[in-house]
């Protein structure tokens, strides 16, 4: 499997998986790209888009690269229905990366006065965004004690030619690594890779234990080692197949205003005093292609995070409750679990396991296998008819959650709620569901009873 971003784009243009379009008319990074993406979504279309001419930049822009499950599955070489299985396989069977001596991502090396982030086609998506943001950059860092790499997506606010504001969620791994370095009074070296194959994107979004290295998960997704090349100015390696790399340090004890930004919750969030990246070098391919992930509740922003998130929840919950069959993340901070309940208390155990798997999770709902977890109306019907609040709802108050939850007060402190929407004591002994006999449903043909012009 290719791990090269350009090879991925070429394959998508040839196969048209999920749609592929080129827009030749000039677009503005201020709101116009976001408007085009949004209008396409309103028409229920999520094509991979190449914006060939972007105002103020020489770089073309690729958007919606991870916008559909089918496109991501195709990039990994599996059918869409096998995508979750491949991700869980990668969690369980990581393949370490390998170092290569050179890469096209270092064809051009910019340092000193040649560094200029303002030439990037960084976007403003909504009228609440504080500045242009880099959204598709994967941040690479190493734990100072173990040397284990951490990969994460963090919003990056352009603050000048060589400076970026960064938002790090308290409780997440990058923040923990930065805190270690700050206690030592030292800067944290980071690299930001832009323009990445979907296998790298999914791996960077993997949620797991602190010492679980995402680089191995990427290898598992690809079923081959990720090729990496040493940075020019810092002690890190980055994917050889990326388009652009920013080599940087996050300064200790420096905080500057960052945000607000249009987040996946649908709200402008996170204005505060946050750390700053100082760029030491920019490397890129000749004529680089800039990858963008449209901010806010764009389809890509939501789907690319949800895919590995669901796989992680499934492996975590099944390890405690093997009877769990499937999970879905239908909205921010919310999980629906389908399971064949065997005994009292098992549904609550499944929800507690899910809460333990990811601090972002705030609401968990368990339903019986007869409920379609992809149909929210069906899930609400189960809640309406199988739940008694005192018996079936529990709350874990005042625990750490997402710093991007607009309802949290203070920031990042939230209540977690579990809803057991399974039939009590079990589905077999619950009130029978109304059904027209199957034989009659199969026998009746509407055309035998209705006029042709109905």
The top-level CATH class of the largest domain is Mainly Beta
Q: Tell me about the biggest sheet?
A: 9 strands, antiparallel
The share of residues in helices is: 25-40%
Mean pLDDT figure: 94
Q: Which segments are poorly predicted (pLDDT under 50) over 5 or more consecutive residues?
A: none
Shape: globular
**How many separate helices?**
12
Quaternary structure type: single chain
By DSSP, the count of extended strands is: 25
User: How many discrete domains?
Assistant: 2
Descriptive overview:
The protein has 454 residues and is an alpha+beta fold. The protein folds into two domains: 75-301, Electron Transport, Fmn-binding Protein, Chain A (Pnp Oxidase, Chain A), CATH 2.30.110.10; 321-429, UbiD C-terminal domain-like, CATH 3.40.1670.10. 27% of the residues lie in helices and 26% in strands. Strands 5, 6, 7, 8, 9, 10, 11, 14 and 19 form a nine-stranded antiparallel sheet that branches. It has a five-stranded mixed sheet with strand order 21-22-23-25-24, sandwiched between helices. A hairpin with a 6-residue loop joins strand 12 (227-230) and strand 13 (237-239). The N and C termini lie far apart (52 Å). 46% of the residues are buried.
């Amino acid at each position: 499997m290719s791990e090269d971003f350009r090879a991925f784009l070429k394959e998508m243009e040839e196969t048209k998986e999920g749609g592929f379009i080129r827009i030749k008319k000039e677009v503005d990074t201020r709101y116009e790209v976001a408007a085009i993406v949004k209008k396409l979504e309103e028409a229920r279309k999520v094509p991979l888009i190449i914006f060939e001419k972007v105002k103020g930049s020489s770089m073309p822009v690729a958007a919606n690269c991870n916008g559909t499950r089918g496109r991501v599955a195709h990039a990994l070489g599996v059918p869409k229905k096998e995508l979750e299985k491949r991700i869980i396989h990668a969690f369980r069977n990581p393949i370490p990366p390998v170092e290569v001596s050179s890469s096209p991502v270092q064809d051009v090396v910019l340092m000193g006065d040649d560094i200029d982030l303002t030439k990037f086609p960084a976007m403003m998506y909504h009228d609440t965004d504080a500045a242009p943001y880099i959204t598709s950059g994967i941040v690479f860092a190493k734990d100072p004690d173990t040397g284990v790499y951490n990969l994460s997506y963090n919003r990056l606010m352009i603050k000048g030619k060589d400076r970026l504001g960064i938002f790090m969620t308290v409780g997440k791994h990058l923040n923990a690594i930065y805190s270690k370095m700050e206690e030592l009074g030292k800067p944290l070296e980071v690299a930001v890779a832009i323009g990445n194959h979907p296998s790298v994107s999914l791996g960077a979004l993997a949620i797991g234990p602190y010492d679980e290295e995402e680089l191995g998960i990427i290898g598992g997704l690809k079923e081959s080692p990720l090729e990496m090349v040493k940075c020019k100015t810092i002690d890190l390696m980055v994917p050889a197949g990326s388009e652009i790399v920013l080599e940087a340090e996050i300064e200790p004890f420096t905080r500057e205003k960052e945000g607000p930004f249009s987040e996946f919750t649908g709200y402008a969030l996170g204005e505060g005093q946050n750390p700053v990246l100082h760029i030491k070098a920019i490397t890129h391919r000749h004529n680089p292609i800039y990858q963008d992930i449209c901010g806010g509740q764009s389809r890509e922003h939501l789907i690319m995070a949800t895919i590995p998130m669901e796989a992680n929840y499934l492996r975590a919950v099944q390890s405690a409750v093997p009877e769990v069959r499937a999970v879905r993340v239908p909205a921010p901070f919310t999980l629906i679990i389908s399971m064949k309940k065997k005994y009292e208390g098992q549904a609550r155990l499944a929800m507690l396991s899910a809460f333990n798997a990811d601090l972002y999770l705030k609401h968990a709902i368990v339903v019986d296998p007869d409920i379609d977890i992809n149909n929210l109306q069906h899930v609400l019907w189960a809640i309406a008819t199988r739940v008694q609040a005192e018996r079936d709802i529990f709350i874990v108050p005042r625990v750490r959650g997402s710093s991007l939850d607009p309802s949290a007060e203070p920031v990042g402190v939230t209540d977690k709620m579990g809803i057991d929407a399974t039939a009590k004591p079990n589905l077999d002994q619950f009130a029978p569901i109304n059904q027209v006999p199957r034989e009659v449903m199969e026998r009746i043909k509407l055309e035998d009873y209705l006029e042709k012009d109905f």
